[in-house]
Amino acid sequence: MSNEAATATTAAEAAPAPEPIPHGLGVPLPAAEARAKTEGTFPYAADLWAEGLLWAAVLRSPHPHARIVSIDTSHAREMPGVRAVVTHEDVPGSALLGRGKADRPVFASEVVRHHGEPIAAVAADHPDTARMAAAAVIVEYEVLDPVTDPEQAFEAEPLHPDGNLIRHIPLRHGDPDAVGEIVVEGQYRIGRQDPAPIGAEAGLAVPRPDGGVELYVASTDPHTDRDTAAACYGLEPERVKVVVTGVPGATADREDHGFQLPLGLLALKTGCPVKLTATREESFLGHTHRHPTLLRYRHHADAEGRLVKVEAQILLDAGAYADTSSQALAAAVSFACGPYVVPNAFIEGWAVRTNNPPSGHVRGEGAMQVCAAYEAQMDKLAKKLGVDPAELRLRNVMATGDVLPTGQTVTCPAPVAELLQAVRDVPLPALPKDSPEDEWLLPGGPEGAGDPGAVRRGVGYGLGMVHMLGAEGTDEVSTATVRVQDGVATVLCAAVETGQGFTTLARQIVQDTLGIDEVHVAPVDTDQPPAGPSCRSRHTWVSGGAVERAAKMVRTQLLQPLAHKFGMSTELLQITDGKITSYDGVLSTTVTEAMDGKELWATAQCRPHPTEPLDEAGQGDAFVGLAFCAIRAVVDVDIELGSVRVVELALAQDVGRVLNPAQLAARIEAGVTQGVGIALTENLRSARGVIRHPDLTGYALPTALDAPDIRIVKLVEERDVVAPFGAKAVSAVPVVTSPAAIASAVRAATGRPVNRLPIRPQAAVVTNQ
């Protein structure tokens, strides 16, 4: 051996072994798809292709309310390159659909009830041909007066065979005759926000030899979408398969059936694969939005500021169809008093149909709207009493063991006082200097027209709460399979990764339970058992719980032969860093050696404890669990121009248990930033039911330049004993709370009431300085 070789060998032998890569729960494991997404190689629905592909386009109504006199598709059918045109006459199965209630037609047939409602769909050999053919469909309308004011919906002619009232909840809790020494009232309006997904809707439908069809879409609830599609196509569910493609972000029901169902109809009619890629305008017109809401409140308190009674009226504008409005109303009414102890509460809630754009599930639905209102009432109460707003809130916050206005006892951890104290006591950010180099810190930026002398700083607070999982008797269940072979684990679960980090969590659960480094999560399709929708962080609970149970069953299969061999129970064995050891050190082997080439697998379900519907007085144990958040907002306001800059949002949240620190922080920061948009810029405006500027120029999303400093002051890890791992939902409650906190800070800076979201510049202008 040469001296060089000997030296190299010695150096190699002396080199320390590489540090093992951390894995398992509690570790900031990066997302498996992170690299592909940053490199632009991650496959989204818009990237799909198939041999013989046709392109689809949808004709949508230009009117919010009209009677359809006739539909003439002959010109479109005669265009070169057009392969099929479908209308309501071509729907072989159920003509109605809907997530919460099936009351929405696949294609409008007799009446158009909202701007953008689908009328017809076209398949052609080129996307431009498809769009031109859709435009060539001649529809004769008898235009009707739209009902766009939800208050008028009560007296208007029925817009739908089911009437205009979708649901009414009269909540009655306590003594109706109770009064307080101090009374404050207010009326509040919340605008319409759009989910505005990064990638607009897209999909591919491929016909099957058995006469069925496969849908490749970014679904967040594939089994429900499959069942809806099968009913529409007149097929058995087994002949329709939904394959979930890469989801480009989802803070709501990601895929509207108005995009999915025409694809399958066209594929079945032509016998060819059909693809649809929506424009941004079509995306705004097609999917559902957050419910615009009108709220009226009256708070009663004693001389010390302790709440005596809350009275409220809540009116949700559902748009043309019911969708999930019933669920949103239940959340709004149940949380109308916020995370405060209120001995007497009397809430009236309604959800009504109008000819406005359709409303549906958007992160924090119902809870966000009422949070903005009840926190404004708390500010009014503090001002009238001359009490610090944070102190007033502390006198009223709820804790574990208190009772909601629905009569349900709060059994989960509710450290609301601890959260509020944490954000109240953190030092305030420094004031901006009045110098040219720091002008970018002022509202409007360095080129703004404002005078630095007109800038006022405000500090405000928000306390929010959301429910986890479904409510009112929803059967929450998920199924997962864990399979291990050759040192590699595979998880099969139909829980869709929408950006909430489930695939990363599933890997961590299996790593933690089985000590296996390499864990893969299989793509999602409807050949797998259902896991339910991706919303309210439910997959962390139900699907994570199912993965954990399946992994523990595999663990038992792995350890039982060893335990039997050494005459001990499996509880005396542990798996750490891929090694199996006994409590006394007698047994020590690796997981790979114990597997000995075998394949182990197990399937398990997770189903939380049941809930019940609210009764005729709004009472009932309707929720599985609750999550809470406190935010202190610091804003700078130009009181002459009304421009607002959010300087800092300090947040404290009860998370149950931190499963992935990096992922959790990212989810919180994203939720807070979404709340900034709700507070200041996002408002999908309409004029007599017609959406104005349905694009990302007219709909102002917050950018990185609008994002404030976000300080996560405290994460309270008090585990919820009924939840797998003890973890709570993390992303929805910051969305609910941050708009209320920002509005509170603007009130503090200006002295103005600020009773509308988003906050308009005129609401922050102070005329009498």
UniProtKB/TrEMBL annotation:
Domain Aldehyde oxidase/xanthine dehydrogenase a/b hammerhead: 39-145
Ranges where the record places region Disordered: 1-28
Organism from which the protein derives: Streptomyces cellulosae
Comp. bias regions, Low complexity: 1-16
Annotated Gene3D superfamilies: Aldehyde oxidase/xanthine dehydrogenase, a/b hammerhead, Aldehyde oxidase/xanthine dehydrogenase, molybdopterin binding domain
Pfam families: Ald_Xan_dh_C, MoCoBD_1, MoCoBD_2
Protein's recorded name: Xanthine dehydrogenase family protein molybdopterin-binding subunit
Taxonomic superkingdom: Bacteria
